[in-house]
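SAMPLE LOG
Freezer: B-3
Tube label: C17
Construct: single chain, 186 aa
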Amino acid sequence: MAFRIYTKTGDQGQTALFGGKRVAKNDLRVDAYGTVDELNSFTGWLRDSIESPSHRAVLYEIQHRLFTVGAALASDPEKHPPTPDVVEADIAMLEQEIDRMDAQLPALKNFILPGGHTSVSVCHVCRTVCRRAERLVVALDQVEPVEPLVLQYLNRLSDYFFMLARQLSHDLGAEEVIWNARKPSK
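STRUCTURE (predicted):
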């Protein structure tokens, strides 16, 4: 028998965690892993939109880490202790990438707005979805403990997306869109 994509078990607004526990589809845990899944989808879009093999390779690794983070968050912590497969070396890799890009770019003296090139804008979408995922995981951690490396990874990952946006602007010759505060009227 072929596997069916639809099970009808969620038709009443419930879903199962890994381990079988049923929870509401708007449960904080479901919102957290759903947002990590959303981030993974946007990261795939970003990876598909850029040419650089080195950036694509980093994004490929990020997608794998995000999938395992999502799986850990989707696990019933009482039956399947989460093993998010995030290690300190993953965070160090993001920091190294951030530092490498930062060393090549002019100093940031202004706030910048998302835009200038489609790939840059997608980076900013990834950054903001990552921040939302981080906020949800922090909220979940206040209810049920979450592996601290997951929180650190998401925090560093949003910084990575910001720096990648700046690097892509530079590489593509796109203008960084500077935020100009409205001058107070007299």
